[in-house]
Amino acid sequence: MARKSATAAAPAFDEAAAAQDEVYVTGSGAPAAADRRTLEQAIGLQIRHHRKLMGLTVAELAGAATVSTGMLSKIENGQISPSLSTLQTLASALNMPISLLFSEFEERRDCSYVPAGQGVVIQRRGTKVGHNYELLGHMLGGAIACEPYLITLTEDAAPYTAFQHEGTELIYMLSGEVIYAHAGNSYHLKPGDTLLFDSGAPHGPEKLVVKPMTYLSIIMYEKD
Q: Which residues form the HTH cro/C1-type domain (predicted)?
């Protein structure tokens, strides 16, 4: 009669579960995203911000809203969850709609999806013949504007090196070839080449070597 082993079998190693426990980060040098505030913290920040804009002390706002200074201090620090009636009296005392108290908590995290071939074709003042711009997406929020374009220079396109605007621009060459000028220097761009530059200096295609050509242009600048 065979003896049963007294040693329990070791559990199988679950590679998928182990992988889920690992923390992955991108190669970007951007700082980590800030932790999302609680609703109470977001409301408190809005109340404090608008109180200071009106030049009111905690005691003055508390008196106008008929709440205690201790309660208002806790509300501004996100330590308690005030009732809707309390928020209504505070909003009234600050001469602001109550909905504004929730605006920071409900801040959008934008995402723009554009299916292939459905970018918005842009025609603006200064657009050159044969220079076709297709906007590939847009962000509504944030302090930095980001405009990604698919630019096509057709057979009837002509060189133009006087483009100039605020911000930083990245060009990634997709097809064709171009001699691209920036601030008095020239760069021969072929598919796969990248050019990142200060777009405040004059720039643009100096010589159209192989037409038609396409390149991705991403323009970033601070909003007013």
A: 47-101
Q: Which residues pair with 150 in a beta bridge?
A: 134, 216
**Closest listed residue to residue 206, CA positions, set 222, 220, 195, 219:** 195
Rounded Cα distance, 212 and 176, in Å: 6
**0.85 exceeded by the pTM?**
no
Tokens found for residue 222: 């601070």
pLDDT, block means (10 residues), the chain with 224 residues: 49 54 64 68 88 89 94 93 92 87 66 84 66 83 81 93 94 98 97 97 96 96 79
> Cβ-count burial of 8 within 10 angstroms (0-12 exposed, 13-18 middle, 19+ buried)?
exposed
Q: Which H or E run contains 147?
A: strand 144-153
Structure tokens at 107: 């801040």
